[in-house]
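> forwarded from #structure-qc
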């Protein structure tokens, strides 16, 4: 019997303006970045990008969430502690994902959306920043044996760009990873019939996209004392981009303090692959879709 292709929904939590700004910077929206990664991790899967933050009414056909094998929530510059129509729409979408029982994964704002939708909360990081990379991430006791982090070393770095963080996880959650800057770096959240695995960092983005994000946030980095001026941000971003173009350059990796957990795509995207292989495929088999 020929198995049916996997159906994956990629939910862009960015507003149209934010998507346009990101495309102008790196040539892709956040959803298109996930799309490119998933073409390698899940070749043959049917990938559909949707935009739940947009004011478009119901863009999904009835039963589309139940019919999907997985949902991915992208990052976004929106602040969920602010009352906005876009934020409400994305949170309501995630509640529908939980109700459908479809396995979900999210990075950065995706984790924050999943937490709020299940009863948790998000806050601004105030003067703290993770800009470029989250350093010295470590698994909690629960995280050391959790399949989301399978294959990660005890301590690792990952691409990360965020000014908000999860303040409180929902009740039915497992904290999987943390570091000295942000207490919730990875978590499993259960709500209703749904299971969500998510990370505050960005396993999906390339070093090219990290460099572009640094340039986009140059003023903020200077304001918060991470760089003395815009020229310093530009020089740092240029090093990151050069390592993207030549990932084997040990001199650049040494200057940036990075190893193969970041520079090698198969290792950088490990959580996404783990989610597909260790949650989506088993759930799909249980539903009789394989």
């Amino acid at each position: 019997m020929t198995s049916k292709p996997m159906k994956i929904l990629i939910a862009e939590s960015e507003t149209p303006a934010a998507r346009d700004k990101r495309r102008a910077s790196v040539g892709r929206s956040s959803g298109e970045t996930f799309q490119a990664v998933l073409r390698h991790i899940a070749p043959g899967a049917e990938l559909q990008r949707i935009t739940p933050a947009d004011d478009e009414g119901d863009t999904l056909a009835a039963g589309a969430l139940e019919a999907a094998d997985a949902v991915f929530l992208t990052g976004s510059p929106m602040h969920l502690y602010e009352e906005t129509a876009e934020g409400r729409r994305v949170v309501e979408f995630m509640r529908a994902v939980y109700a459908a029982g479809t396995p979900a994964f999210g990075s950065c704002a995706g984790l924050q959306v999943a937490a709020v939708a299940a009863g948790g909360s998000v806050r601004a990081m105030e003067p703290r920043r993770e800009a470029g990379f989250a350093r010295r991430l470590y698994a909690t006791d629960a995280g050391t044996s959790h399949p989301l982090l399978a294959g990660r070393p005890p301590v690792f770095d990952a691409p990360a760009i965020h000014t908000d963080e999860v303040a409180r996880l929902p009740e039915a959650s497992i904290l999987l990873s943390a570091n000295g800057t942000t207490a919730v770096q990875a978590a499993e959240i259960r709500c209703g019939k749904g299971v969500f695995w998510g990370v505050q960092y960005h396993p999906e983005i390339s070093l090219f996209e990290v460099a572009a994000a640094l340039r986009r946030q140059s003023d903020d980095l200077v304001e918060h004392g991470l760089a003395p001026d815009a020229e310093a941000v530009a020089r740092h971003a240029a090093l990151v981009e050069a390592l993207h173009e030549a990932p084997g350059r040990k001199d650049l990796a040494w200057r940036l303090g990075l190893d193969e957990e970041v520079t090698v795509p198969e290792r950088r995207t490990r959580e996404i692959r783990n989610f597909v292989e260790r949650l989506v495929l088993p759930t799909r088999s249980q539903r009789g879709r394989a």
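QC bot note: The mean pLDDT is 94. The CA atoms of residues 188 and 197 lie 5 Å apart.
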